[in-house]
Amino acid sequence: MPVRPAPRRYPTLPVPPSLPHPRSVAVVGAGLAGAQTVAALRAHGFDGRITLLGAEGLAPYDRPPLSKELLTRPEPVWLSDDLGVDVEQLADDVRLADPAVRLEPEPDAVALTTASGERLVADAVVLAVGSEPVRPPGWETAWTLHTAADADRLRAVLTERPGLRLVVVGAGWIGAELAGVAAGAGADVTVVEAAPVPLDRQLGAAVGAHLVPWYAAAGVRLRTGTPVAAVDAGGVTLASGEHLPADVVLAAVGARPASRWLAGTLPLDARGGLRVDAAGRLTGRASPTDAAGRLGAATLARIWAVGDVATREHPVFGPVPGGHWSAALHDPDTTVRALLGVDESPADPEELRARLGLAPVPRHAPYVFSRQLGHDLALLGLPSGVEEVALRGDPASGGPWAALYLEQALDRHPRSTGEGHRTALVRAVLLVDSPREVGAVRRLMNRDEPLRVDVDRALDPAVRLKDAAV
To answer: Is 110 helix (H, G, I), strand (E, B) or coil?
Structure first.
């Protein structure tokens, strides 16, 4: 029988030549990823011209508190205060209300046209365009919670109208967070979810089912398995024909990269993202199976992406879609080091870097944190929906618990410890009401090799997860 070849751990991606000494860089997007890019450029000695283009007309701020702390933080968490990143001081040209609407890549430069009609030319561009909420056709009267202006509007109506009838469409991260905050403020809240359980797409049905009781406990009505057919000023009409009256309908059915203006120019994947290597360099392909893209190597060397729009290669998790807060915080530094040539091989496997005498590149597992319905959640890693889910602790006990997503690899021989305990690779960990464990588990997951655990010990709440690693 022929020997089955081992799977390639590191996909082959085109590696354009390094960009020689750029003297101008345009950063498109003034959120966390864009601000961190500007800060990293200056931190690594770039003394050329930096242009920052934003869309909201506000200085960079942190977006997660908009829902988690809607009523306790009347002002955005400005990054100049929170991280010490003042883009007005760091960049030469800051345009916070003049977003890019067109990109023209060339071998020797990149041109951007802004909403005001001005054409800007730079040696390199970093796309940190962020995301935009999904609003299905016909839902024009539905509110969203994505910007500081959205938060101001919701805060005002919840404060001024006790007993407000609020229907939230979607029991994802934002929907659950807002539902809990609104109910706590006295609103009459109903959450409508098409999937059978909350956070079904993010956590899977087995884990999402354990979140259902949280809604009633927080004073929120939850209707699952209930698609919405229409939204109007008076409420929502369900697929069954039932009408739920509401003073405010909030659409929380997801977000997608704010990249539609790039369609036809750059190769967007199905979610509107850009496939980049581990350093954030555009590959010129929408998926690993695409034939070589139409953009030349010299052009690819000038286009980079970070944050929500970047589908970025990770040595453990493979291509990771953007949207993770940790990626927006940390990835710009690696990208800037590569763009400036400070690190010429940031996308190489660590074993190769070690042979070349290069320092390890910091790796950050996908990380989502949420405060919803009286509970704290931290998701580290990337569940795919096909893993075995094992519980650490009892979700019904009212105390802390965790879910481990264990990789099921049919082509590998099962392994065990000296005690005969089964071992398994961990694809993701969900921690519930366990804030003291988050730091240790992040360190376990933030590596360039998969985490393998003694399953028996990992599922014992009396054993620290780090002590279950093998």
So the answer is: strand
Nearest residue to 14 (alpha-carbon basis) of 216, 301, 427: 301
**Topology of domain 374-468, CATH:** Enolase-like; domain 1 (3.30.390)
d(CA 10, CA 193): 38
Q: Would you say 126 and 26 are in contact if contact means Cβ atoms under 8 Å apart?
A: yes
Mean pLDDT in residue range 65-93: 95
Task: Give 406's pLDDT tier (boundaries 50, 70, 90).
Answer: very high
What is d(CA 266, CA 219) in angstroms, rounded to the nearest whole number?
A: 46
- Please tell me which residue, 406 or 9, carries the higher pLDDT value: 406
Which of 20-29, 172-181, 190-199, 281-290 has the least mean pLDDT? 281-290
Q: Which fold has domain 24-132+256-355?
A: FAD/NAD(P)-binding domain (3.50.50)
Polymer length of the chain: 470
pLDDT at 363 over 90: no
pLDDT category at 2 given cuts 50, 70, 90 is: very low
Sign of the alpha-carbon dihedral angle for 443, 444, 449, 450? negative
Q: How far apart are CA 169 and CA 223, in angstroms?
A: 10
Question: 305: which strand partners?
Answer: 127
**Biggest distance spanned by C-alpha atoms of the chain:** 74
**Distance separating alpha carbons of residues 340 and 333, to the nearest angstrom:** 11
pLDDT(180) > 90: yes
Residue 402, beta-bridge partner list: 392, 431
240 burial (CB, 10 Å; 0-12 / 13-18 / 19+) is exposed
**24-132+256-355 and 148-253 have identical folds:** yes
Tokens, residue 390: 């094992």
